[in-house]
Amino acid sequence: MAQSNGPSTIPIVDFSAFPNGGKEEQEQVARQIDNAFRQVGFVYLKNHAIPREKVDECFSWSKKFFALPMETKMLAPHPPSGAHHRGYSAPGVEKVTQHQYEKDDIAKSRQVPDYKESYESGNVNDDSQPNIWPPEEELPGFRTFMESYFTECAALIHRILDALSITLALPEPGLSPTHSKSLFQLRLLHYPAIDAAELKNNKRSRINAHSDFGTMTLLFQDDVGGLEVEDSNHPGKFSRAGPIDDAVLVNIGDLMMRWSNDRWRSTVHRVGLPSPKALSIPGPGVNTEGQRNSGKLVELEDAEGAVVPDRYSIPFFATADMDTVIEALPGTWGEDRPKKYEPVTAWGYVQMRMAATYEE
């Protein structure tokens, strides 16, 4: 297990033993993932079986979708609240919060809006949250590809669940059946170009510090960067977690942290300023409200007038079937390690968090 080359200490694990390796190889990979989730809450997986070409194609579709006129994107509108989390959300509609549930606290956090737009889709068989697609004639082939990509990501989630089941010595069939309905969410994210000073001075945010709601998240990022992960042992200290070629970044969510009785960490992370090389001074005619600039690169300390370019990312959020009761799994508690959380259903917890994300 290698370490990433950047400032982050997130481990890199070769996942090729799933499903191709023998029992001993699978156990070794499972231990490496277990250690990463216990120490950091994140892991880079290489050889994860989702083809590079398919990942690249998903980014291409994302850029095509977000390049559509606003009125076209609004033909697939996200409903007003977070209860039905599908469709398109314009910049400023969503505001990510971290365990804020009182209306006054939520309103205060919204004074610094999230400057991003998103499109959500899920399992075609999820009757509780049907997908909201743009008309086929507006973006031919988009729906077909997204449904196919969803299937690839869902299969990877189930393989990781198999690995986690091994680490806890859970009897067959392990954790995978608790996600049998694959009530997952495929999210396309676009952060429009923005003045670096606005991010630096907290006049706008891309995504504030937060933990994810569900059991696990897969993240595919472009090469702009900006993702930062908090050091759980030193709150407020963040390290960059940039992209690594042909690797997917995987992190634990709140439900899995509760389920594992804090064995695995749901680590706080955020998106802010990227590394200095991603900043540039705009050239003539550059539109900083949505178009990638083409000016010269600058160092952060010389960033007056600099622009952070567009950023695209593709997270894939997993959660357990909605009626699954989340309480400490066997092997995560005992006389010397009492249960830390009251039981909660997967659906109840996620909806509580989503209600704080969208205004009603």
Automatic annotation (TrEMBL):
Write out the ranges of the annotated region (Disordered).
Answer: 1-26, 101-132
Q: Name one matching Pfam family.
A: DIOX_N
Say yes or no: keyword Oxidoreductase present.
yes
The name this protein carries in UniProt is: Fe2OG dioxygenase domain-containing protein
Highest taxon of source: Eukaryota
SUPFAM superfamilies to which the protein is assigned, alphabetical: Clavaminate synthase-like (SSF51197)
> Which Gene3D superfamilies does this UniProt record tie to the protein?
B-lactam Antibiotic, Isopenicillin N Synthase, Chain (2.60.120.330)
Alphabetically ordered keywords of this record: Iron, Metal-binding, Oxidoreductase
Instruction: Give any single GO term for biological process.
Output: small molecule biosynthetic process
Gene Ontology terms for molecular function:
metal ion binding; oxidoreductase activity
Q: Which residues form the Fe2OG dioxygenase domain?
A: 182-320
Task: Show the ranges annotated as biased composition (Polar residues).
Answer: 120-131
Instruction: Kindly list any coiled-coil regions of this protein.
Output: none
Basic and acidic residues composition bias: residue spans = 101-119
**Family, per entry:** Belongs to the iron/ascorbate-dependent oxidoreductase family.
